[in-house]
Amino acid sequence: MNRVNILLVDDQPAKLLSYEVILEELEENLIKAQSAREAFEHLLRTEIAVILVDVCMPEQDGFELVSMIRQHPRYQNTPIIFVSAVMLAEPDRLRGYAVGAVDYVSVPIVPEVLRAKVRVFADLYRKTRELERLNAELEARVHQRTAELETSAAQLRQLNEELEHRIDQRTREREEALAQLFEAQKLDTIGHLTGGVAHDFNNLLMAVLGSLSLLKKRLPADERSERLVTNAIQAAERGTALTQRLLAFARRQELKPQAVDFLRLFENVEDLLAKAVGPRVEIRKCIPADLAPLLVDSNQLELALLNLFVNARDALESGGAVTVTAAAEEARPTGLAGGNYIKISVSDDGEGMDEATVLRAAEPFFTTKGIGKGTGLGLSMVHGLAAQSGGSIQISSTRGKGTTVSLWLPVAESFTKAQPAVMPTPAEPVKPVSRSLAILVVDDDALVRTGTVAMLEDLGHLPREAASASQALEFFAGGQECDLVITDHAMPGMTGAELARHLRAAFPNLPVILASGYVELAEDQGLGRMLRMTKPFTQEQLQAAMDEALRDKVAAA
């Protein structure tokens, strides 16, 4: 228990001593003063809990002292007890209460009474101070809590703003994802549509180009007529180029590896990649200018980069950086053939993946994204490109630190040197065929069939016609002889590739040329390196294909 200060004021030392003896049981701090002046000195220096004042003092009586004490702001509520042997009448008591006393103790003093009264006021003082302290602490806590609530309210407002921003952002991302899905579906639809259109359109161009070429050879020497025919041929050739661009847009072309300058390729698609990842993602690159060229399909490599950048964007929800590096690598993953390789790495500092996810990341249709947010084919396509290009892929990722996808792709020079051993050239080229040949033309389109027959007749050959694969098989079943077969691929009932397989089984030495209005031709039916032509073809291309087919026949013989 904290002791409190009790001031004893009396001009007689003996009385002060008696007060002290009586009150020492309370174990409080007793302060003695023999005059009003001395009492005020203690009051100004010390915090006083209870004051005992003698009424009759020579210089200044107790009434005057108490009146002066009450005028001080600090002691307006301090308990003051009068001690007196005289002036105990009722008017004297009323006067004492009027100037500020709270109680009277008469002399002779009863010790128990004095101690009891002083104890009550001392405890009241302590409890009052404790209450004041608690009130102060409460006010401080209320102030602190108010500040915390204001801070929380500010944080809540900020979180609400961030939440609204993230909702808007997620809404935009979802709309972008839906737009991308729509674009992918539209692209797939265009791919199927352009495949069919390309076949029909190329058949029309085949008839147009073939007829115009033959007509040009038969025109009299007329500069104007020749100019008009040449203009028509150029327009048809532009139609051919347009068809090829449509097929390239729909990604319906087969893989065409070529020497690629990776730095130039990346600079060409950097704007597209920046739009794909958005403004919150920074693109960094470290690609040396003297990097050796890659042997890869440039269009597919661009698509692979786009897939990797989209994956990195999805991992960088709060923004970040995607870094592209390229360098010659002597160390390479197991399973790669000997030779020189370039390592291309795409790294992000996003959320990363755990080990189990990394192991399945390249599996087709595996995705960690929500329903409708990903097909799981992005890394599968990149993996397929790397494998088909003679390279490899490696994925390293740490949860919370980011992901790095590395592609090892062969250097163009190493594969260029290896090609002569696989495809040896003959010592002496075979001269073009000069004799007339019996040639079977198989095509379900009458216009194309007529144009091809006309070009063959113009070359001095003896063409025969078949409108379907079944008619062609009937032709051979009838025992008719044939030196060469030129067949369309996309035909109802039986395709040209299936017809070629039947003919190869029945007549192993019979050359077959497969023609199609599609840019890509199927690698099925076990046909291997069968000669192929893409419609529309010119008479010169037809002659070259026939020479090649008959050269293979001579080599086989």
TrEMBL record:
<keyword id="KW-0067">ATP-binding</keyword>
<dbReference type="Pfam" id="PF00512">
    <property type="entry name" value="HisKA"/>
</dbReference>
<keyword id="KW-0418">Kinase</keyword>
<feature type="modified residue" description="4-aspartylphosphate">
    <location>
        <position position="54"/>
    </location>
</feature>
<keyword id="KW-0808">Transferase</keyword>
<dbReference type="InterPro" id="IPR001789">
    <property type="entry name" value="Sig_transdc_resp-reg_receiver"/>
</dbReference>
<dbReference type="InterPro" id="IPR003661">
    <property type="entry name" value="HisK_dim/P_dom"/>
</dbReference>
<dbReference type="GO" id="GO:0000155">
    <property type="term" value="F:phosphorelay sensor kinase activity"/>
</dbReference>
<keyword id="KW-0175">Coiled coil</keyword>
<dbReference type="Pfam" id="PF00072">
    <property type="entry name" value="Response_reg"/>
</dbReference>
<dbReference type="InterPro" id="IPR004358">
    <property type="entry name" value="Sig_transdc_His_kin-like_C"/>
</dbReference>
<dbReference type="InterPro" id="IPR036097">
    <property type="entry name" value="HisK_dim/P_sf"/>
</dbReference>
<dbReference type="GO" id="GO:0005524">
    <property type="term" value="F:ATP binding"/>
</dbReference>
<feature type="domain" description="Response regulatory">
    <location>
        <begin position="5"/>
        <end position="122"/>
    </location>
</feature>
<feature type="domain" description="Histidine kinase">
    <location>
        <begin position="196"/>
        <end position="413"/>
    </location>
</feature>
<dbReference type="Pfam" id="PF02518">
    <property type="entry name" value="HATPase_c"/>
</dbReference>
<keyword id="KW-0902">Two-component regulatory system</keyword>
<feature type="modified residue" description="4-aspartylphosphate">
    <location>
        <position position="488"/>
    </location>
</feature>
<feature type="coiled-coil region">
    <location>
        <begin position="16"/>
        <end position="43"/>
    </location>
</feature>
<feature type="domain" description="Response regulatory">
    <location>
        <begin position="438"/>
        <end position="550"/>
    </location>
</feature>
<dbReference type="InterPro" id="IPR003594">
    <property type="entry name" value="HATPase_dom"/>
</dbReference>
<dbReference type="InterPro" id="IPR036890">
    <property type="entry name" value="HATPase_C_sf"/>
</dbReference>
<protein>
    <recommendedName>
        <fullName>histidine kinase</fullName>
        <ecNumber>2.7.13.3</ecNumber>
    </recommendedName>
</protein>
<keyword id="KW-0547">Nucleotide-binding</keyword>
<keyword id="KW-0597">Phosphoprotein</keyword>
<dbReference type="InterPro" id="IPR005467">
    <property type="entry name" value="His_kinase_dom"/>
</dbReference>
<feature type="coiled-coil region">
    <location>
        <begin position="121"/>
        <end position="180"/>
    </location>
</feature>
<dbReference type="InterPro" id="IPR011006">
    <property type="entry name" value="CheY-like_superfamily"/>
</dbReference>
